[in-house]
Amino acid sequence: MPELTPRTVLITGGNRGIGFAIAQAFIALGHRVAVTARSGAGPEGAMTVRADVTDAAAVDAAYSEVEAALGPIEVVVANAGITRDTLMLRMSEDDFDAVVDTNLGGSFRVVKRALKGMIKARHGRIVFISSISGLYGNPGQVNYSASKAGLIGMARSITRELGSRGITANVVAPGFIETDMTAELPEAQTAEYKRAIPAGRYGTASEVAGVVTWIASDDAAYISGAVIPVDGGLGMGH
Fold first, then answer.
1. Which pick of 77, 147, 171, 225 has the fewest CB atoms within 10 Å?
2. Count of alpha carbons within 13 Å of 37, Cβ hemisphere only?
3. CA distances from 70 to 89, 101, 205, 218 (A)
């Protein structure tokens, strides 16, 4: 079981899907939880702050608000992300830039803002939410796959820079997860995807959340720069 030392946790994009489930899991373990969202709200028990991760000033303001209410941020889960899927020949520069700036650039801004406090405390947990697409590639997702792959380099560079300061940086890479998005897929397409997954099913957001809470715990203090797939075996070897 993850340790029960109460921590202050910030999860970006915590108003729905995997981010919402991660927030619920940390709350259930007794942590102080805040989520960022451009709209909507996190689960009951979470503090919700408005922030667009593409805006450094908005990220800074969100941190200040959370720190004033809950104390210094000890755990950051960089989850916020968008997609603009299309084949590369049809992909505009705006499609590419918007996805990379949100998914990769947003993670950079959010984590950078947390680091001074973590260095001072000599403790910190950074968890990037990547994707099977960042390891395996996916047609129509050159922008998304590139942004999610970039999180691995970011986590490993942070590990080399700050590993001696009690700070870990890891990547969780979900595969096909039961969300509103997958619920809208045609039945034939869903069946085809499931045939490719050794587990024979989609994962749940709570299964991803369980991995995130563990990798952020004291039990995982000697794990950093790791990529942990939560994909039912789909991406083995990648």
1. 225
2. 17
3. 47, 28, 25, 20
Going from N- to C-terminal start, the domains of the chain cover 8-229
Q: Are strands 32-37 and 124-129 parallel, antiparallel or unpaired?
A: unpaired
Q: Judge whether residue 186 has pLDDT over 90.
A: no
Instruction: Please give the pLDDT value at position 184.
Output: 72
Backbone angle region of 223, left / alpha / beta, with phi > 0 → left and psi within -120 to 50 → alpha: beta
Per CATH, is 8-229 categorized as 3.40.50.720?
A: yes
Contact assessment for residue 70 and residue 32, using Cβ atoms and an 8 Å cutoff: yes
Active site residue 193: no
Supply 216's token pair: 């952020």
- Give the pLDDT confidence of 107-116 residue by residue, as tens digits: 999 999 999 9
**Mind giving me the DSSP string for 50-78?**
E--TT-HHHHHHHHHHHHHHH-S--EEEE
Comparing CA positions, the residue from 106, 128, 111 lying closest to residue 173 is 128
| Rounded CA separation 212/206 (Å) | 10
Q: Which of 63, 136, 144, 202 is catalytic?
A: 144
